[in-house]
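User: Can you write out an input/output pair for a complex, sequences first and structure second?

Assistant: Here is one pair. Inputs:
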Amino acid sequence: MTVKPGATRSRLDPEPMPRRDVLGLLSLWSMATALLFATVGMFRLPKAAVLASPSKKFRVALPDTLAAGEPFVPPGRAVAIYRDPEGVYAISTICTHLGCIVHATTQGFECPCHGSGFTASGEVTRGPAPRALDWLQVSTSGGLVTVDEGVTVPSGTRVPV
Amino acid sequence: MSLSLPRTPLQVFRDHLRAAPGRMVHSAFRTGTPSTDRGRSSFVFGNVFLHLHSVRTHRWSLRWMTTAGLGIASVAAFLITLVTGVLLMFYYKPYPDVAYDSIKDIHFVVPTGRFMRNIHRWAANVMVVTVILHMARAFYTASYRAPREFNWLIGLALLVTTLGLSFTGYLLPWDQLAFWAITIGANIAQSPREVTDALGITEHFDPGGLQRLLLLGSDTVGDEALIRFYLLHVMLLPLVAAMLMAVHFWRIRKDGGLTKPADVNQRLGPPPADVYPVFTEEPVKTYHLAAIVRGRTPAVGSGPEHTVPSMPHLFYAELGVLMLTLFVCTALALVSDAPLKELANAQVPENPAKAPWYFLGLQELVAFSAFMGGIGIPAIVLIGLGLIPYLDREEEGTGVWFGGPGGWRLVQRSIAFGFSAALIVESIAIRFGWLREWFPDIPQLVVTAINPGTVLTLIYAWYSVWLVRRYGSTRAGALGLFTCFLCGFIVLTVIGTYFRGPNWEFFWSPADWPGGH
């Protein structure tokens, strides 16, 4: 920068940026834009598009001796399946608080981790759980029950056998 | 030397060969044997690892009471975890089930594997303790004050990184303990949903779900989660920690060394005869890259008076702390094994499923409501800690333990107040239950927001405001608040660790747990 005649400027003062330094500004802004896009792109990668989890849908045969209101928990699944005169329904046994597996009894559900309690239909009775247990989509065919853990249905939905 | 004949090329070659070892050493350490103070100073100055230290150290910094060596102990513990961690990586395989087997191999088959894993685990625990104590030291000596505000923030970031390192390491064994602690941790990350659900906006705005998805890479704790935690544990977080440490140490130097009281030289008195030479004259002039740097830096106006050469005085002190830390970690590793429970089982929660001990205070709060206990209150505490140096602009008591209005007596009272308040609130919650037990139809948003931790935070905040008014000093309020939160943390952690059993119910002793635990 040229100092105008008469103007005093210490050599210690920082040089003001020349107004017409277009190339400099251009490179600065292109770098900023590139960085922004790169950052967004880098955060996009870890957010998986396909979730590598086991199939949510499964099919089981309910035991003939299953009484009304008695939970049937298929091995390896976090679901309690019930059969009463109105039909079949399934309630997820994953606690709505912090994801522990609740213990299903005929009276209701109890969470071993932080003591949440639920009624037989999954409503919260005590403890820190923020909402009722999920009811899951059920369909029946040929005596078999298909449950989809990925789809929730309104509480109380029963499917005729 | 005699009148020599011209030397043959072979003789020259032989002479160079003879001189080579000496020249190699000299080329590495140009300053020669550090046998004088001047030589030692050049040695420190010219060595990339040592020049992190200033060449001379103030006598105040070397007093045991100034820092108790807690910062160095934290670095030492970090270095120990680094070395043992790299060794464990020789055998550890981050894939579900295989991971568990490889930890078993490390424990039972790999030579010294069990010892190394124990040291790794204990050094991690030691690091959490020393980092917390180091923060308490910096706080109680008012070392966060200007010009050290920013380094206090870096310190907070290091605290969070340390906890993150421990937490991510917790999943790697893939046993029951690990699996359920991480399931709970990941769901705490998701707990902003409690709020968004209550407001009915989760479909459009779901930061909780996003956090959990990014953490687990899936909707369950599985192989994706394990590889992510592994990546965080062995690569990302150590890099972040190392970078933050570099800034932290550099800032200590740039902010004028360790905090010293204004009247430090009177406090120290004349230097003892065996610590010599110490410059006692005030400097006539100081130079600080005077041509380009403007403004006041902490080094301006102070000279080398009351300083001693860092080599050997500071280095011996540091080595002493390093060896003590190593001794503590090794001794603990010899007497106590790192835990390994049964293989992770996604169908049967560990009961009780407990996080590492330093998170059990939070887990105690989470047992009342996940969002407030796991995210809300920790965030409030971190923001509060970060604001302290920008609100407390006083100067009284800098560099002195419990310095500031009120002093040690105020801290004693705050200890009594902090412990009583935490014990009373917890006793009420344990004996009489909490909101949902009293008002079964209470809206969820109220249950989420009003946690015993919220009540405790409000009580502490009220006490702190009262202190600010009573002493007319922000520092007094900060002293009270920090002490109270430390006490609350201790009470909650002890209750979570020793007095909570299956279903997170209160038990006086683990011997009373049902099911013959």
